[in-house]
Amino acid sequence: MGDAAPLIKDSMAAQIHGVGVPPLKELAMSVRQLATLVRAGVVIHTALETVALQCENPSLKQSFEEVAREVTGGASLSKAMARHPRVFDDPFVNAVDAGQMSGKLDLILMRLATFMEIGLKRRASVKAALRHPVIVLCAFTAAFFFLVRFVVPQFTNIFSRLHTNGADIGE
């Protein structure tokens, strides 16, 4: 019983810090590999096991292995994926379900992979577009604080030594 507490604490920490969420880039690559295997006629549970072997991310690997076991046990692919919401979100699972129903699973998986890759490219372009304005904003903020901290006190000292008010200068 004493050994269970650290395991629970570690799994809770992993959930809080998002350790169980795989990188979108690797998920997209794995889904594309799965689509290619399905298109080639490989049985779905074998395709899932093959993709799991090629995954570098431990949480993604574990998810694909568990989905493969569940599919081997008789569950549908979409229902097995739905049990892993940190990896496969609802729209993804619904698209896989539609692909299974229509018999176009390979096409749907390929489109999902493409959609994820486009999302990655957009995210990267937004980061690149925001980089310059953030740098400029930080520079202006630093300049403002420098002026307030060092320059304005110097003028205050000069005016206090002259025994004059700064507002009187314009008159």
How would you describe the overall organization of this protein?
This protein has 171 residues and is mostly helical. It is rod-shaped. It folds into two domains: 122 residues, Receptor-associated Protein (Up-down Bundle), CATH 1.20.81.30; 40 residues, no CATH class. It has seven helices and no strands. The longest helix is centred in the last third of the chain and has 57 residues. The chain is 77% helix and 0% strand. The N terminus is likely disordered.
Euclidean distance between termini CA atoms: 83 Å
Total domain count: 2
Helicity, as a percent range: over 70%
**Helical region count?**
7
Second CATH tier, the architecture of the largest domain: Up-down Bundle
SSE layout and pairing:
Layout: H1 4-17, H2 24-39, H3 44-54, H4 58-72, H5 77-82, H6 90-102, H7 105-161
Fill in the keyword field for this structure:
Receptor-associated Protein, mainly alpha, rod-shaped, single chain, disordered N terminus
Q: Brief description of this entry?
A:
The protein has helices at 4-17, 24-39, 44-54, 58-72, 77-82, 90-102, 105-161.
